[in-house]
Write a structure and sequence with these properties.
heterodimer; A: about 325 residues; mainly alpha; B: globular
């Protein structure tokens, strides 16, 4: 197992280098510059803009800029944002707590909804509960988050005035924090749990038809024990690996919801940096995401190997 | 004595310097009984506290919503208008200007003029007398040395400040004593009020930024936590999200500001920002609502808030390409060597100027946010020419084109000498602009032109990359549409029609498309008037020169102006913003005067 992990980590390094080159190349070749806001403002004439771009190092050839970025990244310096002229690492760390609170919690909520519903759906296949769960899953998956988000805003904020719809990090009292987090978490949980429910259900169905289940029932074990103690454990193996693969999405995956509710997470930082052509920030976020994806792929494979005795890595 | 101690304790409690527990303990030490303490704290009737109803800090938190989030609170390193607004809550210039362009003092004691000797008769210098006794938010005094430092900071090329152009004409800044400073210009100028005025002129403290001039500017802690002579200072700043301001204890007016805290939240889009103020009242003020008028109108009908508008948001115009965008000469299109096949004919330009239905555009799309405009130079209002008119007359346009020899072919498209009136018309991606395009295409179609509509993402359209063919500077189309914004002096705005030095002024490959003249129009009479307007010291003659320059642009149809846009903001009904809007300064310029009514 150790050799396997070491081998995977070693092959990850050239993968990540290649990924960083591709992302950097795309960003450097993309049109737009950080001072686009001033293009139709004659008080900031082209010479001034050119000077600023020169000070930012944006008029150097792309390979040189890449090498500069890569060497400072390895040294631990993630660069300076063009928009805020402050270190990028600071910007990311500032947003991380909110990200984990809202999106992490939504992911957790999705799991807590999907697993029980998926299990019950599988056990009572084709019953009324199963039909309802399946339909809700399809609806939740098909409706885009910006639609559900706006519907929730109009119902709960504008009409009923129960909940605020603009997320404010300055709110510290528990009731206020819950009130403003409810809608974004609901939107995300609905969307994420949809696919997960179906997956749990099909994984459980694979197992419920197995011989060992028949043996367990023949032994006289009650249904509940059979499901929870035996079937669920086996059925959850692929689900756990899927969850491990989905974890990096907590880092950047809720862009639309963050925009609608103005949640200051890393997804909205990514979008606004792309729109402002703030290359250092975009590089930091996307490259970190790439590292997390590669890492969690490895984690998922290792977990699978640990949980399932039939799999052994050489 | 005890009274003063108690008053000070109350003040400290209010401004959150001490917790309630600390205040109670100290009051106990002063000899107050528990009953007295609770009475004093909760009802404040024992002592006439200064901050009881109507005084400084008595009205709680003010919440502002900006759909473009501020990313820096140092105005000289700003990336966009929102950063000026965020900084303006904290910092002040020497003078500010209202919607009509009238100057009024902010940090200056009075507005310099010829009469009071502030402005020299030969246009070479201006002397400011500064307000005395003004302190920075850390207690140190504001002096003329800070004005000198601001100039040194901005003018250093490696600081890479975005306000640089306003200070280019300054030769030296000389403080003659702590409260007087003389500014001398390189060239005599009638526009002495370019630097140190409005959003681009905020004075920054030497003691905070001295070590951060030049390439070190980006490391200054001041960029993330600025403080100034204004009514507030930055408490916490999350770039791209939220700025929280607390009161400046040393602010010169003891009864202001009314609000003890300001929160400026950013992000999202303009429509939901309007909703947050006008429909749910979650926020008190929203800036720059570039939203279609019918949508805004519907929200205002809810009755919770009202709109604030001010003219001077810029003129949305159709820029005609006076060169041929489809011919490649020496590796570039839209080259000066290839005049445009039909826009170079004045009669054609005049005919099409009559075929753009500005009135419908203004009424249906802009509503209260814009007026049909017959001029390119509209702001400040003294430059608005009365010699031009908005004309929409399709018959006259058709007749003029017939007379000029452009005959309609079998497909309805006019042609002459093998040249057809086919054109590409491009603007940025924006639902409002796409609707404007439809109106223009309709009108142009009715006089025999074939118009192909295109739209380019705003980030690309407005970028300055030399390698990108879709920028407004490259202008590789026949017509493009966008809004150029105004400054307090017309020089920079009118530069887009100037061609005194074509190699420098006209956007082309040789200058990396950095020339300001995008429509590639050249006119000697305009150049002469521009040169006069830059130098003429007599105010009457100066204004007349600019008006005449505008008239030439309109008569010769260099561009077709469409809408004189207004800036629109929204406030809840209970917030009084004391006439804050101005096209030459931030919405937050008078935030010390804002208060809640009822």
């Amino acid at each position: 197992m150790t050799t396997y992990i070491v081998r995977r980590l070693l092959t990850a390094i050239p993968t990540l280098i290649l990924i960083s080159m591709v992302i950097f190349g795309i960003l450097a070749l993309a049109p737009g510059d950080p001072l686009g806001q001033f293009a139709a403002n004659p008080d900031v004439p082209p010479e001034v803009r050119q000077n600023i771009l020169h000070q930012m190092g944006l008029d150097e050839p792309i390979p040189i800029r890449y090498v500069k970025w890569a060497t400072s990244w390895i040294a631990g310096n993630w660069g300076y944002s063009f928009a805020s002229r402050t270190p990028v690492a600071g910007l990311l760390l500032q947003r991380l707590p909110t990200d984990l609170w809202v999106i992490g919690l939504a992911y957790l909520a999705a799991i807590l909804i999907a697993v029980p519903v998926g299990v019950i759906s599988a056990v009572k296949q084709y019953s009324l509960l199963d039909q309802i769960a399946t339909t809700s899953a399809f609806i939740g998956y098909s409706l885009p988050t910006f639609f559900t988000g706006i519907v929730l805003i109009i119902v709960f904020s504008v009409r009923l005035r129960w909940l605020p719809f603009i997320y404010n990090v300055q709110v510290h009292d528990p009731v206020g924090m819950v009130k403003q987090a409810v809608m974004p978490i609901a939107v995300l949980a609905l969307f994420n749990s949809a696919a997960l429910t179906r997956f749990v259900r099909s994984s459980m169905l694979d197992n419920v038809g197995q011989d060992y289940v028949r043996t367990a029932r023949a032994k006289g074990l009650e249904q509940r024990r059979v499901i929870v103690r035996h079937v669920l454990r086996n059925g959850l193996i692929p689900v756990v690996t899927l969850l491990a693969l989905g974890l990096p999405a907590v880092f950047t995956g809720a862009v639309v919801t963050e925009q609608i509710f103005r949640v200051p997470g890393i997804g909205s930082l990514l979008i606004s940096s792309i729109q402002n052509s703030d290359t250092p920030v975009v590089m930091a976020v996307t490259f970190t995401y790439a590292i997390l994806v590669v890492l969690f792929n490895l984690v998922a494979d290792v977990i699978y190997g640990v949980l399932d005795p039939r799999i052994r890595y050489g | 004595m005890q009274r003063d101690d108690i008053r000070k304790l109350l003040k400290d409690h209010r401004t959150h310097r001490l917790t309630r527990r600390q205040v109670v303990t100290r009051m106990g030490e002063l000899g107050l009984s528990l009953g007295a303490i609770w009475t004093v704290l909760d009802r404040a009737i024992a002592l006439p506290a200064r901050a009881a109803a109507g005084g400084r800090g008595s009205q709680g938190t003010l919440k502002l919503l900006y759909w473009q989030a501020p990313t820096i609170v140092n105005p000289h390193l700003a990336n966009g208008t929102k950063d000026y607004h965020a900084s303006r809550i904290v910092l002040e210039p020497l003078l500010t200007a209202d919607a009509a362009g009238n100057l009024s003092p902010a940090l200056a004691a009075e507005v310099p003029s010829r009469q009071n000797g502030g402005v020299s008769a030969d246009g070479r210098s201006v002397t400011y007398k500064l307000k005395q006794g003004v302190k920075w938010a850390d207690g140190r005094p504001f002096t003329s040395d800070d004005v000198l430092f601001t100039y040194q900071y901005v003018i250093n090329k490696q600081t890479a400040s975005t306000t640089y152009a306003q200070y280019q004409n300054i030769a030296k800044v000389e403080p003659s004593d702590a409260y007087t400073v003389k500014i001398t210009f390189k060239e005599p100028t009638p526009f002495w009020y370019l630097g140190f005025v409005g959003a681009y002129g905020m004075i920054v403290p030497r003691h905070a930024l001295d070590a951060y001039i030049g390439s070190n500017a980006r490391n200054a802690p001041f960029n993330m936590k600025s403080f100034g002579t204004g009514p507030y200072k930055v408490e916490t700043f999350r770039p791209g999200d939220l700025v929280v301001y607390s009161m400046n204890e040393y602010y010169r007016d003891p009864n202001k500001p009314a609000f003890s805290q300001v929160q400026m939240k950013g992000g999202g889009d303009a429509v939901s920002a309007a909703r947050a103020v006008l429909e749910t009242g979650e926020y008190d003020y929203a800036w720059n609502l570039q939203v279609e008028w019918p949508v805004l109108d519907h929200m205002v009908a809810a009755g919770k808030g009202s709109l604030l508008t001010v003219a001077g948001g810029g003129v949305e115009a159709l820029y005609l390409n006076h060169t041929d965008p489809n011919k490649d000469v020496d590796g570039q299109r839209s080259s000066l060597k290839a005049p445009h096949p039909f826009w170079s004919d004045l009669k054609v330009r005049q005919a099409f100027a009559m075929a753009a239905d500005r009135a419908t555009m203004a009424k249906e799309l802009y509503g209260g946010a814009g007026d049909a405009s017959s001029n390119v130079l509209t702001t400040p209002s003294k430059y608005y020419s009365k010699n031009t008119k908005v004309v929409f007359n399709l018959e006259q346009a058709n007749r003029q084109l017939d007379e000029a020899g452009w005959k309609k072919g079998p497909d309805g498209i006019r042609e002459k000498g093998g040249v057809k009136l086919q054109m590409t018309y491009v603007t940025s991606v924006n639902t409002l602009r796409q609707k404007e395009q439809q109106i223009v295409k309709n009108g142009f179609g009715q006089i025999g032109a074939n118009v192909t509509l295109q739209s380019v993402d705003a980030g690309t359209f407005f970028s300055s990359s030399p390698g990108n063919n879709d920028t407004i500077a490259h202008f590789y189309r026949d017509v493009e549409m966008f809004t150029d914004s105004f400054g307090i002096v017309p020089v920079s705005y009118m530069e887009q029609f100037y061609s005194g030095d074509p190699m420098r002024d006209i956007a082309q490959k040789e200058n990396n498309w950095s020339g300001q003249n995008l429509c590639r129009w050249q006119n000697k009479d305009f150049n002469a008037l521009y040169d006069q307007g830059v130098k003429e010291l007599d105010p009457q003659k100066n204004t007349a020169a600019w008006i005449k320059a505008n008239d030439i642009v309109i008569d010769q149809v260099a561009v077709i102006p469409l809408i004189d846009r207004k800036s629109v903001s929204a406030r809840v009904k209970t917030l009084d913003t004391a006439g804050n809007l101005s096209p030459f300064d931030a919405d937050t310029r008078n935030i010390a005067d804002w208060r809640r009514t009822g």
